[in-house]
């Protein structure tokens, strides 16, 4: 369903993606791991067409999204649902208005049909009877689930999760992981999960890919990644302070000698 071909992107002379190549089959859940700032979210934004690469291609069902504009691009984007890192809810809208926002914007449904779909999606994420509340009244975990309900509202073929467990406690994080797995099994959507939370990565992924220095350096099933002999991968998955990945601490730079 998704083919990423030799993708390059730099900002102000700093290279973030340097020839990323990756294929994601229909129905698979792929987890992309890597340090904060390594380009994981940038890669997601290219996949959904929010950013354009300096060079390379992103094929969605064979269509190169990097060359699409306007209505054609929006039609492809409707295949996607995206859970943003901070949920990205509109503070001035109620839960119901947030969840049904995309359907309302594209005028694809009658108001009564949108209301029914909103209730259905809130039930899928374990939230009922909160349609009238505003985001300020919600906990961090509830915001994440409302954001997920909004992403599901368009019946996406592809789900993108940007740091789904960041900023919530471990118990709620596990509940979000269970929800991602349940939605995958129930809806059979293709999913990409960006995270640096290895507990989440092992639980939700069919495959795990590590992004480092702008490239995918290893891809494998969760157990293969857990037992990887690549020193960069091992340092990241074990959370070790020493190793080949340098650590910036003010004016100091730590790495294995």
Written description of the protein model:
The structure is a single chain. By secondary structure, the chain is an alpha/beta fold. The chain has a domain at 1-68 and 196-257: Rossmann fold (3-Layer(aba) Sandwich). The chain contains ten helices and twelve strands. It has helices at residues 40-47, 70-77, 95-99, 101-105, 111-124, 140-152, 170-187, 198-204, 222-226, 231-238; strands at 2-11, 14-24, 29-33, 55-60, 63-64, 80-83, 158-162, 190-194, 207-212, 215-220, 247-249, 252-254. A six-stranded mixed sheet has the order 6-7-8-3-9-10, sandwiched between helices. 36% of the residues are buried. The mean pLDDT is 88.
The CATH architecture assignment of the domain at 1-68 and 196-257 turns out to be 3-Layer(aba) Sandwich
Beta percentage is 25-35%
Q: Give Rg in angstroms.
A: 19 Å
Number of strands: 12
Supply the number of helical segments.
10
Estimate the helix proportion, in percent: 25-40%
CATH fold topology of the domain at 1-68 and 196-257: Rossmann fold
The outline comes out as globular
Give me the strand/helix succession.
EEEHEEHEHHHHEHEHEEHHEE
User: N- to C-terminal separation?
Assistant: 43 Å
Biggest sheet record: 6 strands, mixed
Q: Which ranges are low-confidence, i.e. pLDDT below 50, for 5 or more consecutive residues?
A: none
Which CATH class of the domain at 1-68 and 196-257 is shown? Alpha Beta
Question: How would you name the CATH homologous superfamily of the domain at 1-68 and 196-257?
Answer: P-loop containing nucleotide triphosphate hydrolases
Average pLDDT, all residues: 88
Largest sheet, spatial ordering of strands: 6-7-8-3-9-10
């Amino acid at each position: 369903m998704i083919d990423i071909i030799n993708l390059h992107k730099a900002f102000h002379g700093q290279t973030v993606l340097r020839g990323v190549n990756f294929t994601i089959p229909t129905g698979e859940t792929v987890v992309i791991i890597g340090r904060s700032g390594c380009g994981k979210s940038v890669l997601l934004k290219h996949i959904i067409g929010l950013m354009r690469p300096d060079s390379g291609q992103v094929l969605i069902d064979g269509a190169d999204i990097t060359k699409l504009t306007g209505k054609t691009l929006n039609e492809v984007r409707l295949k996607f649902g995206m859970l943003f890192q901070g949920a990205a809810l509109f503070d001035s809208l109620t839960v119901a208005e947030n969840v049904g926002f995309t359907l309302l914007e594209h005028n694809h449904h009658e108001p009564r049909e949108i209301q029914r779909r909103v209730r259905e999606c809130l039930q899928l994420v374990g939230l009922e009877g909160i349609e009238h509340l505003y985001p300020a009244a919600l906990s961090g975990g509830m915001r994440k689930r409302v954001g997920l309900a909004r992403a599901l509202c368009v019946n996406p073929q592809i789900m993108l999760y940007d740091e789904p467990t960041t900023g919530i406690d471990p118990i709620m994080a596990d509940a979000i992981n269970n929800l991602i797995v349940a939605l995958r099994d129930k809806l059979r959507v293709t999913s990409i999960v960006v995270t640096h939370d290895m507990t989440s990565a092992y639980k939700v992924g069919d495959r795990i890919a590590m992004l480092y220095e702008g490239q995918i350096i290893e891809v494998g099933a969760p157990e293969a990644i857990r037992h990887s002999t690549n020193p960069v991968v091992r340092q990241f998955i074990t959370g070790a302070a020493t190793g080949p990945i340098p650590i910036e601490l003010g004016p100091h730079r730590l790495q294995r000698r």
